[in-house]
From TrEMBL:
Keyword Transmembrane helix belongs to the record: yes
Keywords, ordered alphabetically: Membrane, Transmembrane, Transmembrane helix
Low complexity bias: start-end ranges: 357-375
Protein name: Uncharacterized protein
Transmembrane segments: 426-443
Length: 467
């Protein structure tokens, strides 16, 4: 009985020892083995897969069993973000492997896979499928091993937008750049800068360099500047050289260079003032008071209450450089009829409110073409083509008054308030002429009398010889 128990114990112990050896050969311990095959990744190039780039894997296929193996096939079963690389096989074969191989005797297989360009940073699984036949059996054995590959995020940034396409000359203008991390890995220690090679556009209140400490994947940041274009700049499109440098995950510095276009020049402004009025025409001085040239300038008097234009209501004066001016003339009269009151409703005939004018006053009013007070401004419209080739319109107002003959004068100038009574406005000049004529006649008569008296005295006075 004891012998049987001892024999039973030894048999069981042998069974457990065999199972332990089998476990040693077939256990994973990071490797996927069949009963006798062990597959390991001995090298990966690059060490961390990069989006949009291939990754090469070197596999060691070792027979650690007691039987020789034949028809060994090793295949990769890639899933996102890995895929088959054009021209490369996903399955490779080894015809024969001897039993109990050393590491130096193992078979070596190389595979290449493509990493998706938009892969995010992280660790991904990859299955390796191995099939083979044992020398002592015709059965095919299949095993699968799952390994993990690390993918480094895509490190890339770009200047997505520039807030302005044009700036005016000699004017402080805001300029905003938006920098976006379009990769899948964060960026750190970014340095953004730009410059105009011609030196026309320059930053004010700061230099041209901005620092960004950290930028997450997919995140955007605004980089603000205040810029100004040289007052003597020629309108046109200027190139901005944009530079962006940053550090990758390995603290290696990378640099991105690009360009942006910025148009310098744009609209301008005008000043319109009364010039003179004569022969039924009213003239205006039109000056370009902005910093840009105005092309094909057209001056018009639009339809408006209180004024009437006889003849053409617009004139083309050509190009106006900044600081230049021109004269535009129009036949402007008051369109209000039946009275000679000012724009504020005041009475200009010298009579009190409600007093009807006499016939002489009525005649003067009819001849005055309905004068209007300075409270009714005349609208002058200016159309021009700016430096960008766009048609612009500016409207200005000019305060005017009319003389008794209907001609326009500047408010408060000759012919202004108090000089609206027709011929009465010329009475001071007539008085002066009459006075000057009277003085001339008077002096002439006095001179004649003196000459007459001298003549009489010479008749009565005898020479000494006659006495």
């Amino acid at each position: 009985m004891r012998k049987f128990s001892l024999l039973t114990f030894l048999l069981l112990l042998s069974t457990f020892l065999c199972l332990g050896v089998g476990t040693a050969f077939g256990g994973s311990n990071g490797n996927i083995n069949s009963a006798a095959v062990q597959v390991n990744v001995t090298n990966q190039n690059p060490d961390t897969a990069r989006p949009g780039e291939p990754v090469e894997l070197t596999l060691s296929v070792q027979n650690i069993g007691n039987d020789d193996l034949k028809d060994i096939k090793v295949a990769l079963n890639p899933e996102y973000p890995f895929s088959k690389l054009s021209g490369e096989d996903l399955e490779k074969s080894i015809s024969y492997l001897n039993a109990r191989q050393d590491d130096d005797d193992a078979g070596v297989l190389k595979f290449k896979l493509m990493t998706d360009a938009n892969a995010s940073e992280g660790t991904y699984d990859l299955d390796i499928v191995t099939t083979y036949k044992s020398g002592s059996s015709s059965n095919t054995i299949t095993t699968t091993k799952t390994i993990q590959l690390e993918v480094q995020g895509k490190e890339y940034a770009q200047v997505v937008t520039v807030s302005k396409a044009d700036i005016d000359i000699a004017k402080e203008e805001p300029l905003e750049f938006i920098v976006t991390n379009t990769g899948t890995s964060p960026l750190k220690n970014l340095v953004f800068s730009w410059n105009d090679p011609k030196g026309v556009v320059l930053p004010v209140y700061s230099d041209n360099t901005k620092h960004i400490k950290y930028l997450e994947a997919g995140q955007s940041v605004k980089v603000d500047y205040t810029v100004m274009a040289d007052v003597s700049a020629t309108p046109g499109l200027y190139t901005l050289n944009v530079n962006l440098s940053y550090e990758d995950a390995d603290s290696n510095s990378k640099n991105i260079q690009t360009t942006a276009g910025l148009f310098v020049g744009g609209t301008t402004d005008f000043d319109v003032s009364f010039s003179e009025s004569s022969a039924g025409e009213t003239s205006f001085s039109v000056a370009n008071v902005g910093n840009n040239i105005a092309y094909a300038v057209k001056v018009s008097i639009p339809d408006q209450d209180g004024y009437k234009i006889s003849g053409s209501s617009s004139t083309i004066v050509g190009n106006l450089e900044k600081g230049d001016y021109t004269i535009a003339s129009f036949d402007v009269s008051n369109s209000q009829g039946g009275n000679s009151q000012g724009g504020a409703g005041g009475n200009t005939t010298g009579n009190g409110p409600g007093t009807p004018p006499d016939s002489s006053q009525a005649g003067a009013n009819n001849a005055s073409s309905n004068s209007i007070g300075s409270s009714d401004p005349l609208k002058v419209q200016i159309e021009y083509t700016d430096a960008k080739g766009e048609r612009e319109t500016v409207t200005k107002e000019v305060n005017l008054e009319t003389t008794t003959s209907g001609n326009m004068t500047a408010a408060g100038g000759p012919g202004g308030p108090g000089n609206r009574a027709g011929v009465g406005s010329y009475l001071p000049y007539i008085g002066l002429l009459v006075l000057a004529g009277g003085i001339f006649v008077y002096r002439k008569k006095i001179h004649e009398r003196i000459q007459a008296r001298k003549g009489k005295q010479s008749e009565y006075k005898k020479p000494d010889s006659e006495v």
